Structure formats: C-alpha cells, structure tokens
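Fold this sequence, please.
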Amino acid sequence: MTGSVRRFFRDNGLGLTFLTLFALALVGQAFAGHADFDNRLAAEELQRISLGEYVTSSDFAVDVMENWQSEYLQFFLYVFLTVWLVQRGSPESKPPDGIGVESDEEQRVGPHARSDSLRWAAAGGLRLKLYASSLGYVMGVVFVLSWLAQSITGVAAYNEEQLRELQAPDSWSEYVVSADFWNRTLQNWQSEFLAIASMAILSIYLRQRGSPESRPVGAAHATTGGEGG
C-alpha cells in the first residue's frame, strides 16, 4: 500500500468506517428481513420469495426509508436548533453567549473571508445565503425525500398485506394519515430525539478521553462547547 493510499484511509477513516458499517448492516438487514418475511408468508401458507425479490420489494424499501428519514430529521433539526438553543456544560452546544448566526468576522465571510476560504464564502448575496445554510438545507431535503419514499413504499407494502387479507387497499392520501404510517414514523422519531437529548446531557457529566465529542477529562462540568476551562 503506497503512502498516498495510507494517507487517504487515515484522513478519511471515520467516514469510510461508518460507510462500511452501513453497508454491512444493510446487507444484514436484507438477509434477516428476508428470513422474517418468508416465515410470515409460510405461516399464511403463501409462496415464499427469493432474496432478490425481497430486496426489490416495497416491504424492504419501507423499512430502510423509515430509518433514513428519522435520521435525517434528527440531523436537520440539530443543525438548525443548535444555532439558537444551547445546553450549558455540553460539548455539543455553543457557549450560552454565542447564540445566533454569529458575525461575518467570526464566520469568515464576505470582506472577512481568508485566502483559503471558498469563493462562495467570499461572495455576497444569494450565493452566500445558500452556502451559509447548505448543510441544514441538504439534510432537510434528504429528510423530505426519504419521508416521501417511505410513504410511497409504505402504502404499497400496506396494500399488499390488505389484499392478502382480502381487504380494500388504501390510497396514498389515506395511508399518510393512517395509524400504520404514523406508528412506523413516530417509533423512529422518539428514539432519535432521545438519543440527541442523551448525548447533549450526558456529555456534561461524562467523558470519553480523546474524542472530539467530549471535553478534556479534567474540564469542569460547566464548560460549554469551545469555552475555556
């Protein structure tokens, strides 16, 4: 392995590791979901399907999409809410006196841009406004698209089950206000919100040496974000 390749893996280790874990988990979900789905079909004395048929089915797609939309909703809300809301003592929060979008000088935009700043940061007008909130916008767009995909694949999977039970299928508009859709949605949302609250609060009192998500082990509990000790 050449030095440049080693450097690439070192410099991108976090992202590459989580993308690998994502792929492995998705493959594992496909096999486990297929086995569970086939067991349900057998219990109903229906013909089993292949793994390929399962991973291209609405049943598999809705399970994937309902998790994606909840994750990106979490990131979307977190990115925007941490601009204005703080949690004293948490490294996940800005200092209490840093609420807001901060000055152009602090953000290194417009006339305060540096030589290594991106051109859109040095520009003004619409380009700067779009780039200044691009992370939140992208998270929001992915959430909306994955939520829409969940609703479309969800109604297809729900109607397949309705037809197997000789019941009338629902339209998309009926499904998105149904108990099945909101049960799937809210059970994911509540876990994401709890995880974020736990991280913000527990990181006030607990430490993980060497992690950027934690303050130094000896830092005071009241130290918030990038504040000094």
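The chain has a mean pLDDT of 91. Residues 13-43 form the longest helix (31 residues).
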